[in-house]
Amino acid sequence: MERPSLEINLPDTHEEGKLYVVDSLNNLNKLNVCPDESQHSLDEEENTGGTGENIAGSNTGNQCLFFIIFILTLIITLALVSFVIFLIIQTRNKMDQISSRLLSEKKNIEELKKINNILLKHLNQSGIKD
């Protein structure tokens, strides 16, 4: 029994004819090898002329979408960092106000202690007993 040869003897044709025959054989091989689910992708490839325009188009679209999301993320991050810096400055100002008020209250308390001591000395010297 003779095994059929996979080689096909092509008559002498022009280069374009050879490429067409090879392309047809490749498509036939893909149809035999690929399952039915992948037939849809083969049809798309034939519709685009096999140049991969769909893949390139979706890749460009994905890159554009990634770039837009990246820019939006940077803008949002910048806004959040600015807000945090604003809150830190506001908190520092409030802390400065509170510390200055505490210092003034401390001075007032020291003065009140001095006045209290003077009154106690005066009362003790005047001879008023409890």
TrEMBL record:
Segments traversing the membrane: 65-89
Keywords, sorted A to Z: Membrane, Transmembrane, Transmembrane helix
Keyword Transmembrane helix attributed: yes
Region (Disordered) residue spans: 37-59
Superkingdom of the organism of origin: Eukaryota
Pfam families: DUF4577
Protein name according to UniProt: LSME1 protein
Lineage: Eukaryota, Metazoa, Chordata, Craniata, Vertebrata
InterPro entries the record matches: DUF4577 (IPR028099)
